[in-house]
């Protein structure tokens, strides 16, 4: 019996977090681009999904300079993608996902981008 149990403090429940891998090679991206199982369109992003039968969700991003212009804006979009995905990953299937930017990302504020991403992740988990 540990010190915490002696004073009646329970251990925190382990949080269920699934791993997020990365799509790294051109081959990985090509598989998703050529034969996506599902395509979701949001206002600022498009999601391509392909089931791989693996145990981990893998993410690839293609945030176009044409849609964002500055590196600061591209990095913001990428951070928001990763952050919102981390919050939803335990509810998502283990698939390969490529997220693409759409025109309008440049003018949108963080709140609008986050709202669009969360809506896309929620639609992805409904199969």
Quick structural summary:
With 127 residues, the chain is an alpha/beta fold.
Can you put this structure into words, describing what you see?
- With 127 residues, the chain is α/β, with parallel strands linked by helices.
- It has one domain: 2-Layer Sandwich (Ribosomal Protein S5, domain 2).
- Helices cover 40% and strands 21% of the residues.
- A hairpin with a 3-residue loop joins strand 2 and strand 3.
- Helix 4 runs parallel beside helix 5.
- The chain is globular, with a radius of gyration of 18 Å.
- 20% of the residues are buried.
How many DSSP-defined strands? 5
CATH topology: Ribosomal Protein S5, domain 2
Tally of alpha and pi helices: 5
Q: Could you estimate the helical fraction of the residues in percent?
A: 40-55%
Spatial sequence of strands, sheet with the most strands: 1-4-5-3-2
Q: Stretches where pLDDT falls below 50 for ≥5 residues?
A: 10-16
Q: Tell me about the largest β-sheet.
A: 5 strands, mixed
Strand content: 15-25%
Overall tally of domains:
1
Shape: globular
Based on the structure given, which CATH architecture is correct? 2-Layer Sandwich
CATH structural class:
Alpha Beta
Gyration radius from CA atoms, angstroms: 18 Å
- The span between the termini is 45 Å
Mean pLDDT: 86
How do the SSEs run, as a string of H and E?
A: HEHEEEHHEH
SS-based class: alpha/beta
Task: Show the helix and strand layout.
Layout lengths: L2 H4 L13 E3 L3 H9 L3 E4 L3 E7 L5 E6 L2 H4 L2 H18 L6 E7 L8 H16 L2
Short descriptors:
127 residues; globular; 5-stranded mixed sheet; single chain; Ribosomal Protein S5, domain 2; alpha/beta
